[in-house]
Amino acid sequence: MRLAFFGTPDFAVPTLARLLEGPHCVVAVVSQPDRPRGRGRKQSLSPVSTLALQRNLPLLRPEKVGTPAVAEELREFAPDLGVVVAFGQFLPKRIRELPALGYLVNGHASLLPRHRGAAPVAHAILAGDRKSGVSVMRVEREMDAGPVALVRELAVGAGESAGELATRLSALSADAIAEVLERIVESTVVWSTQDDSLASFAPKIERADAELDFHEPAEALVRRVRAMAPRPGAFAWHQGDALRILAARAEPGPAAGPPGRVSAGPAGLRIATAEGWLVPTVLQRAGGRPTEADAFQRGRGLPNGVRLEARLGRAARSRLEA
Question: Which site in 28, 153, 277, 280 is 20 to 30 Å from 97, CA atoms measured?
């Protein structure tokens, strides 16, 4: 088949790389425009754009993929099918139905209908899910609600961060997409309607979602740390600056003092929570580098008794937990 590929971040790269191995022909790649990225916030290509240019593939980077001009340009490549992985824009009907087969397939990083939306990996960890996976579905107007052709599961590792889980899911997505394409060619693909009554939603992660509120139990805070690592990184406020906590574990037992109070001494660094202690293992000051907790304390560490705070409120977390 002649394929048009739609994708943007690192998560989509393994699928594009797999498709380039054959047997199908990637005739065009569509990705997001160059955006400010990294610590310097310089305009940079998306990871998918970078691979497309390296392989001399036709590359479209529209601000809005649904314009008639973009549709006309895509039509010139005469794709049989479109493959979507973490593209990041709404795909209107004129794009969804443009390929010769009349539809696009999407590799979504969740066990649909659970965690429909932009941030399924983070939300799976926040929810304490013990398993995750990839669902290959047909793209329809309603977000991530199309019929599903294939689901592949994997266990969420104990202590696994969102970044680590996303890496494994991206490889699983490449395999799952390849299998569905084979079924389409062989006319053996079966599309199963999702049960909307079981749907949950995984909206885009905002800055407030990464803030740690120590009035929550330590176990919930550890999940938030994992869900936000490596980016944007969970954080709390110390002396007016955001202190990122990039890895942590929970320690049971009564926590001395009010939530957010730091205990720093021979036993190590601990932070009181509503239930138990949060024990940071990797921290990062604003403008600094990620540092193991022991080295962090040997430098300009947190003094015993200081209290870390939350400032941005619970509105975003209430949205996540709804």
Answer: 153
